[in-house]
Amino acid sequence: MASGHALPELDQGLARLVSSLDCDMAIQTGVMKQYGKINDTVKDLLAQKVKISQEKQEVERLQQEISNKNKELTLEIEKLRHVNQELIYENNRLSVKDEMLSHENKELTLELEKLKETLGERESVKGKVHFICSNGVQTRSMRNRNVQERYGGSMVASEPKEENFTEVISNRIIAEDYERKRELTEIRKKLIEVFANMDHCRQTIRIKMMGQIDIKPFLDVAHREHPTHISKFEAAKNCSSWQLKIQNPLWHPYKNISEDGSLEEVLNDNDETLKQLKESGETIYDAVIEALKEMNEYNMSGRSVVPELWNYREGRKATVVECINLLAKKVKEHNCKKRKANPSAI
Do 254 and 268 form a contact (C-beta atoms < 8 A)? Predict the structure, then answer.
């Protein structure tokens, strides 16, 4: 009975063990499937990582290539900028040369006009000589011809012909005119030296520096825009900056226009520096342009300030006679003061 009772229990134990083994096998099969999925996922991730690494390397390579291209483009741009600056400089140099040639052409034109006037004077002198001869006044050559006729033409004329006579007179007139102009120029130079050493702050006639910008408009603007203690400094700095600009031969804010068949030089409103100047105000613009015109008139090639005797009352160049009269007046006033200070010396 005891052994019969033990067999069913053994069967039950075996059944439970088999059931447990089946359960474990099922779990293990599930785990193996999960492991397979995880393994496949890891392989996919590794493949993607390799791909991403390769793409990253490709991106870095492209970035390096782009960087090298940018450096090459930067160098090319720098070269082009340098070439452009050289072209601008060359263009400005040619503009200045063209301006100088234009100025020389104007001088030659004036010289031609003077020669025409001289020729007219010669013709006038020749006409006067003919007039004298036609009214019965004999020249030396005419007297010589009469002598030759009287003595049968045996005498050789030793005096110059009438044409040579008129040419000599004409040349003498030209030489005298040149000498007068030279003396007048020397007198003006000496008067400029004298007036430069005089105290003439209120005189009608005094030295004006042609091409020097008047600082007063700059002071007026600076007083409105800056405190009093720095307004003079700002005005002087701004005025000095524009003075350097107009003395620079490379800045030529002019253009040529054709009017009545002749070329005329006028300000170029499209010039960038002139546009900047206009933004400073009308009074400053007028002061700078006036100085620029004076510099072009008195020293276009050198672009430097030139002293001139100036009649401030009438706003024009003073004549030599005006300057001498003023000096004579000064001497007279000085002598009067001297006599009043020392009556016994009279």
Answer: yes
Say if residues 211 and 242 touch (Cβ distance below 8 Å). Answer: no
CB atoms under 10 Å from CB of 45, counted, come to: 10
DSSP H or E stretch at residue 266: strand 262-267
Q: Which helix (H) or strand (E) holds 209?
A: strand 205-210
Residues comprising the chain, all counted: 346
Closest C-alpha among 167, 171, 177, 166 to residue 139: 166
Q: Residue 249, Cβ neighbours under 10 Å: how many?
A: 16
pLDDT tens by residue, 137-184: 444 444 455 544 444 444 444 444 555 656 777 778 888 888 888 888
Element (H, E) at 308: strand 306-311
Residue 62 Cα distances to 70, 71, 76, 291, 321, angstroms = 12, 14, 21, 59, 85
Question: Which long-range CB contacts under 8 A does 162-170 form with residues at least 24 apart?
Answer: 162/129, 162/133, 165/129, 165/139, 165/140, 165/141, 166/122, 166/125, 166/126, 166/129, 167/122, 169/125, 169/129, 170/118, 170/121, 170/122, 170/125, 170/126
Beta partners for 210?
A: 306
CA distances from 149 to 37, 155, 163, 165 (A): 150, 9, 21, 21
The helix or strand, by DSSP H or E, that contains position 262, with its residue range, turns out to be strand 262-267
Instruction: Note the pLDDT of residue 332.
Output: 87
CA distance 143 to 29: 158
Please provide the average confidence, as pLDDT, over all residues in the chain.
Answer: 77
What amino acid is encoded at 236 in this protein? A
CA distance 243 to 258: 30
Q: Are 165 and 141 in contact (CB under 8 A)?
A: yes
Cβ atoms of 297 and 265 within 8 Å: the answer is no
